Each structure stands twice: as structure tokens, then as C-alpha cells.
Amino acid sequence: MITMHDPVTTPDTPDSPVTASAHPLAGLGWTDGRAAAFAPLAAAGLLPGRIVRMDRGSCEVLLVDPDDGEPAVRRAATRPVMTADTAHNPCTGDWVAYDPAARPAPALAAVLPRTTAIVRKGAHKRSEGQVLAANVDTVLIAVSLAAEPDPGRIERLLALAWESGAEPLIVLTKSDLVHDGDFVRADVEAIAPGVTVLTVSAETGEGMDALRARATGSCALIGQSGTGKSTLTNALAGTAAMTVQQVRSVDEKGRHTTTVRELVPVPGGGAVIDTPGLRGVGLFGGEGIEQAFADITAVAADCRYADCSHRTEPRCAVRAALADGTLPERRWESYLKLQRENDWIAARTDARLRAERARHRKHLTKAARSRPKP
């Protein structure tokens, strides 16, 4: 197994076999930086590729067939690069080193450093992260206009998107089913400072040109089931790549048609990653919260004290904004809720790391005592 950490700074050479400018996967994000990082691996006979789909124990990798030089999808075992840290295991969107000579079957030999990663708290009780997609430029947050949008959920998804390092973009889908889409968009824009909000309909084509113009490079679609993520994926890809179903007429909820995260190339360059509907969105990090609530951060900057707790301190700008209504109480409570969750995750993560270090020290001590004395 080869472990990749920081990018290798080996410069490209004209005869490099993975120079980005001539690489058939350049449209999917293969860059000069990645080519330089991959140079030592190419010298070892490994092939660069991008994961398009993850399955249990294996994945599908889009790479260039060395025989004909054309893009092809090949299956690879993932066991050689799996670790105990779920946040660092391979996922859809990762750039990887594919070993065609591995036995008993081709396998991944390394995962290249990520530029961005959408990481949420795992569904289990342990304080571990689950990567939804990697190396994306834009996170498309799908919100259906067929049901009343939930401001708290949108804020949570925005924090998740900002935390990834990619640019969030809110897509209000199914505009053909409502007549007040512009009013809803104004409400959403009020809770998404600095974020573009588009109103689209994949059925009629309304707003799709604007979405295509903004959804360049690699994008990932996140949101609840039934928001039309798979339909948008098909519209952006220009093909029926993803299966779609109608939402339940009783409650306008989806049926979890998409069960795996899958990367679909987009004509003209770029890709979109469709993801399963998110029932729960646990955050795994706090930087995204400050960006999602940039308006509150700006207000807090006017407090008299830099460490103001916004409770009893004099000349607190936050309490003043709450009192005069410029800062809605609902938004403030949403901010505090996400901050509490982040503090809990941070404490659990620190406790887990301390426990792992303690187990490691115990193992070393036990091994030292078991050595025969000279």
C-alpha cells in the first residue's frame, strides 16, 4: 500500500505520461498539480483515475485505458487503502492510483490529497466523519419548491457546504409546480448571505441555462429525498444516467431512489455527483457555521467586548439586533443550536483521540515489558 499525504512538488516534464494539459481526463479536473503529485506513482506503473462509484469492498474508477488511450471505467478493490479513520477512506470524487497488476484483482494503491471534501457526522453515535463527495468545486443544495422549505435545514446544509471548502449554490427545484417561486427565493436569500440562489425546473428548462453557467467544474448535489437531485443530474449530464421516481403524493416526500453516490461526466467538461437523500445532517467541524451565518458574525463584530457571550454584557450588538428585529430570533436560535452541536462533536473527537493515544501508549508499554531483559 502507498500512502499519500501532502502533494508531491515534482514539476511536470514534457515527456511526463500524466501531464494534465494532454490528459483525456482534464475535463474532470485532472490538473498540473495532480499530475505532479502523481509522477512518482506513474513511475511505479500505476494509473491515475477518479472514483465514480463506491461499492462494498470495491469501486469503479474512470481512467485512461493504456491500450487505446480512451477513457474507460474499471473496477478496483479498495481494501489496500482502507483505514480505521472513515473520513480518510476513499469516496466518490477521489483521485486515486489504480494498480492493474494487483492480485488477485486490480486495486487502489493510493488516494491523492483532496482539495475539498463534504464531510458530515456519521449516522452512528461515534464521533467520526462520513465523506459524501471529494474534490468538488461547487455544492448544489437542492430545495424543492413543491413543499415549504425548512430554513433550519437549509442553514445546516449551507454550513456543511461551506465547511467542505467548495462554493455553495442553492437550487430551488420544481418551479413549474408553484406560482410564488420568486417570493420563496427572496426568503431563502435572506438566510443565505453571499450565496447565489437559483430557481429552476428540469421539466420545463426554466433557469437551467443559468445553472449550467454556474455549475462548472465538479459539482455535488445534496439535499433531502424528493428534491429532484437525480432529475437535475440527468438534465446537467444530458442523459438518463440516474433513475428517477415521483414523490409520494400524500406528503411530497421522496423514495430514496438514489442509494449510492455516483459521479456523472457532463458534456463539454466537468462532472456532477448525485448523492442519496439526507435524512440527518450532522456537522463535522465549525468553520462552515461562521460562514453560513456571516450576518451574525458581522453583527457580533460591533459588540463592545471581543469575547462577548451575548448574554449580559453591556453594549452587546447581538442583543440589540434581536431587540430591534434586525436579527430574527429564529435565525439566532438556529445559530446557537449548530454551535452547541459543533462543541459536542469537538469534545467527543478530542476524547476519542485521547483514548486512542492512551491505548497506543499502553500497547507500547506492554510490548516493552514483554521484551526479554539483556
Automatic annotation (TrEMBL):
Positions that bind GTP: T173, K174, S175, D176, G223, Q224, S225, G226, T227, G228, K229, S230, T231
InterPro entries to which the protein is assigned, alphabetical: G_CP_dom (IPR030378), P-loop_NTPase (IPR027417), Ribosome_biogen_GTPase_RsgA (IPR004881), RsgA_GTPase_dom (IPR010914)
EC number: 3.6.1.-
Domain EngC GTPase, first and last residues per copy: 134-279
Main location: cytoplasm
Composition bias type Low complexity, residue spans: 1-19
Keyword annotations of the record: Cytoplasm, GTP-binding, Hydrolase, Metal-binding, Nucleotide-binding, Ribosome biogenesis, RNA-binding, rRNA-binding, Zinc
Cofactor binding, per record: Binds 1 zinc ion per subunit.
Keyword Hydrolase: yes
Function of the molecule: One of several proteins that assist in the late maturation steps of the functional core of the 30S ribosomal subunit. Helps release RbfA from mature subunits. May play a role in the assembly of ribosomal proteins into the subunit. Circularly permuted GTPase that catalyzes slow GTP hydrolysis, GTPase activity is stimulated by the 30S ribosomal subunit.
Assembly: Monomer. Associates with 30S ribosomal subunit, binds 16S rRNA.
Protein name: Small ribosomal subunit biogenesis GTPase RsgA
Organism: Kitasatospora saccharophila
